[in-house]
Here is the input.
Amino acid sequence: MEYAFLLFAFVCGLTVKLIGIPPLVGYLLAGFLLNFAGYGLTDELTQIANLGITIMLFTIGLKLNIRDLSRREVWAGSVSHTVLWVGVITCVVYGVSALAASYIDGLTWQSAALVAFALSFSSTVCVVKVLEESGESKTRHGRLAIGILVMQDVFAVVFLVVATGKLPTVWALALLALFPAMPLIKKMINKSGHGELLPLTGFILALGGYHLFELVNIKGDLGALIFGIMLAQHEKASELAKSLLSFKDLFLIGFFLTIGLTALPDITMMLMALVFCLLIPIKALLFFGLFTSLRLRGRTSYLSSLVLSNYSEFGLIVGALAVSLGLLGNTWLVVIALSVSISFVITSILYRTSHSQYHRYKEKIKRFEKNRRLKEDIYPTLHNAEFLVLGMGRVGRGAFNALSKLTDVNVWGMDADRVKIKELADEGLNVICGDGEDIDLWDNLDIKDVQLVLLALPSIQDSINITRQLKNAGYTGKVAAIARYEDEVSSLLENGVDKVFNFFTEAGLGFAEESLAYAHSQR
Here is the structure.
């Protein structure tokens, strides 16, 4: 039966992708259609969904710099938003429930506050998936959004502990033994190599963290996240996260299906869910106002607010607990589930055009910026750069090193990952931290001497967007990009890229040329 569910999810995901909508919208639709057809949630599918969330939280931890959580914009932004949202939305929910009391269970002030709290979270699953698909998880706004999500996850765990009265056992202190055990765990990761043992190691660690924390009455998902954070500084953390990527995406299909299979709504519930979704702009405006008041740039505030403007799977967990405690009626859980589903669709569709939206309204958005900038938001400078490599991963670093051997060329590199840039700068390389899709960055960079921009990025959509931003900023030099598949080459050329290198073909050609040159030198 689970195979049939996944097959149907695949069909729906492929169908919506063909019309330009993200596949996760199709997965949600599949869940509701299966529910409408009379199918229910199974234990096996629930286990698949839970595994997907556990692996996802572990990979988030692997990519998270713990110092990001200590930033004022993260902790102050998340706390302030939760308090303001719950205060405002409690009044709104109570008023709406009073007006619709003849159609749906009424609410007390306490119950209304619980619904507002359940709707205060943004979806970790949706946000991370959207950021990863757009290649923006390491950008300034991406890291800010993920930091907010982690803080919200902590709020949810604290609520669950308080509401259930399920305090950690005294054995929770034994978790401190993880710190001296870290060298052994890291050595195990090193010994796992680069093959099939590496993702298996990731599974063992993620599930091990989950079950260890569950054993001492702490939410297991928090354990998976903490395990990931503790391993984030390991040299193989990025490789470990990538090895789990496909598994995580596969299991998360089960999560999207479970939302649709949770309950079958009626017209009244649908209308209530739509009313809740009309509150999403308030959520976005609150985030935007708080971020700009904390001196973040307008673009960072806008993009972070947009991607966080949805409801969360944690809302379902909070709602389910409230129902089990008799604080909410079952109908409200269905309404929350519908609201979560619809908000996923809204975020997935709106964020696809987020950069063009900002470009269109940037003058109005920038009016809310503070004159005094945060240190991290001060624009970098280029010094007489002739070649600029965007994306300092393996391919970009290889291109950077090759160009640097040309003594008469001034080569610079750029990447959105601030940690990576600091490491490269410590090596003495000419590098700057920046998001290539940021039109404000290009407007403030001196690129008049740049003859060639090399886009060493995994996403062709990112390459296309950056090419457009360069043209909008008045760049007149050449743009080169890499493609992994043949059908991506024509798309890049049609969108303004001057030269495209097929990653696999060119890598094979370069390998052959280097080998031939070496063979001749040995004669």
Summary: The mean pLDDT is 83. The beta strands are 387-390, 411-415, 431-433, 452-455, 478-483, 499-502. The CA atoms of residues 323 and 329 lie 6 Å apart. Residues 2-366 form a domain with the Na+/H+ antiporter like fold fold (CATH 1.20.1530.20).
